[in-house]
Amino acid sequence: MKRIPLFIILVFIAANSQAQNTTDGLRYSTSENIGTARFTALSGAMGALGGDFSAVSVNPAGGAVFLKSGLLLSASLHDVENKANYFNHTEKSISDDVALNQLGAVFVMNNSNVDASFKKFTIGVNFDTTKNFNNEMYIAGRGNTSIGNFFLEQAQGIPLNLLQLQSGESISSLYQYLGESEGDVAQNAFLGYQAYLFDPVDPNDPSNTSYNSNIANGSFNQEYSYLSQGYNSKFSINLATQVTDNYFFGININTHSISFDQSSFLLETNSNPGSKVNRIGFENNLSVNGAGISAQIGVIAKIASDFRLGLSLDSPTWYQISEETTQSLGSRRVFEGQTINEFINPGVINIYDDYTLRTPAKVTASTAYIFGQDGLISFDYSYKDYSSVDFSYTNDANDPFFNGLNNTIENTLKGASSLKAGAEYRLNQLSFRGGFHYEESPYKDTTVVGDLIGFSLGAGYNFGHYNFDLAYSRSEQERNQQLYSVGLTDTAKINSVYSNFVLSLGFNF
After folding, report:
1. Which of 101, 92, 70, 46 is nearest to 380 (CA)?
2. In angstroms, rounded to a whole number, what is the distance separating the alpha carbons of residues 469 and 504?
3. Would you say residue 145 lies in a domain?
4. What CATH number did the domain enclosing 394 receive?
5. What mean pLDDT comes out for the span 440-460?
6. Burial of 304 (0-12, 13-18, 19+ CB in 10 A)
7. What is the pLDDT of residues 466-492, one digit of tens each?
């Protein structure tokens, strides 16, 4: 596992609390316009075309369109530009990542009997990075709600004696105990209490459950940094056949892999009169690993020599996911005229119970018109019902937390359509390509996450036994980023531009 190394981990524990939310379900249910250079340049509108490794990931019948056995590999430069506006203050951040995003091989077996109905069989294998998680974001501004409220709200209702160190007890051991017995809400409350962000209403009552903030109302200078890295990938085994001259059928068996690391840090300062705490630094880290399985079936029909239709169905993907989190909290307070710095670092990894995530099924209808040897135009329409995203524990289908989360997802998300269009013009061995893609927001409230719109360009040259292709894809999306789930729920308006530069090299044999 590749972890963002922000501080040293000392203790390992098993925690029973939950860290999952709607964002997690969407993160692993969506993909990017990336694959081979030809696929990327056509904005992925290749469901009725086939003959391309990434096109086979859309419609498995495309495997039978290959004329020759071959090998193709693709490398990409992934670029994300985020512009964040928080209380009328704008910050811009950029991140880049270079990766081998696609590698595939296909073996074509033609039937020597020209009168047979089955003209050919193909077997293909392909690896695709369906989503690159490398991202950086910086948010800064002067807000009117303190991060202290995040800890204060979670402390309300928790007995004081659970937050206080007993004789011989350490920060790490009590933090671990709270994670195992009470969950992450109690752990957050414990951090806030130990950092003196709030005090009990009755400090002499061990069963006190009410707390008052040590941070006065006013304005707060806040800086929020976010860093993520990792990928979601798919490895496919494709079996396809051509029946007569006009029909192609295929099936994919897919395995999926998730590797995701995320770190966030919020720094807050204030000079509000009466405030006992004037500086807070809060760090959170999340590490995720997962594996999944899915299947696809598809068909392509030549309605005429120059017109094709395609239809494919993707099953849900069933993931088994493990998560780990770490936290630390620092504060600066004034006590009896002296400035005191507190740093609460439990040095503990919260290891959550593995859970199952089911992402939505997808249906794709495609069409393409081919102008002989001169070029083509193609269209793909897809539909996914994101409200069907489902979390569960393998051994407890009626877990109350996941039941509540699934209900929230059902009430928050919706079915969403995507439309892709591509065109290619051939001039002898040289090809010029372009495309457009649109994906509807999965949220019922589109101010949370807006629609994604983009375009793509590319070119390629066929040397006969090998081919060389280049592509550029750009997508843009806006969303309102809520900093925390409770307490500090202010949002920043984020405009994100995703760019992919892809280079592919293919060989025929």
Report:
1. 46
2. 5
3. no
4. 2.40.160.60
5. 97
6. exposed
7. 999 999 999 999 999 999 999 999 999
Query: Is residue 148 domain-resident?
Result: no
Burial of 430 from C-beta contacts in 10 A (0-12 / 13-18 / 19+): exposed
**Rg over CA atoms, the chain:** 27
Alpha helices in 228-371 (DSSP H): none
Backbone angles phi, psi at 224, to 5 degrees: -120, 120
Name residue 328's amino acid: S
In this prediction, residues 39-47 reach a mean pLDDT of 97
What is the domain extent for residue 335? 11-138+153-508
> Count of residues for the chain?
509
Alpha-carbon distance of 22 to 319, in angstroms, equals: 15
What value, to the nearest 5°, has the Cα angle with vertex 172 and ends 168 and 174? 65
Q: How much is the pTM?
A: 0.92
How does DSSP classify residue 63? G
Q: Which one, of 325, 319, 437, lies nearest residue 389 by Cα?
A: 319
Q: How many domains does the chain have?
A: 1
Main-chain phi, psi angles of 259, to 5 degrees: -135, 115
Per the CB < 8 A criterion, the answer to whether 257 and 233 are in contact is: yes
**C-alpha to C-alpha distance for 24 and 344, rounded to whole angstroms:** 27
DSSP code of 65?
A: G
Q: How confident is the model at residue 16 (pLDDT cuts 50, 70, 90)?
A: very low
The SS3 assignment for 150 reads: helix
Q: What amino acid is encoded at 452 in this protein?
A: L
SS3 content of the chain, % helix, strand, coil (to 5): 15, 55, 30
In a domain, 92, yes or no: yes
Question: Is residue 278 included in any domain, yes or no?
Answer: yes
Cβ atoms 277, 331 nearer than 8 A: yes
CB 17 within 8 A of CB 355: no
pLDDT at 306 over 70: yes
Is 214:276 a contact under the CB 8 Å cutoff?
yes
User: For residue 149, what is the enclosing H or E element?
Assistant: helix 148-155
For residue range 265-291, what is the model confidence (pLDDT) as tens digits? 999 999 999 999 999 999 999 999 999
- Please give the helix or strand (H or E) that residue 291 lies within, else none: strand 277-304
Side chain identity, residue 377: I
Amino acid symbol at 37: A
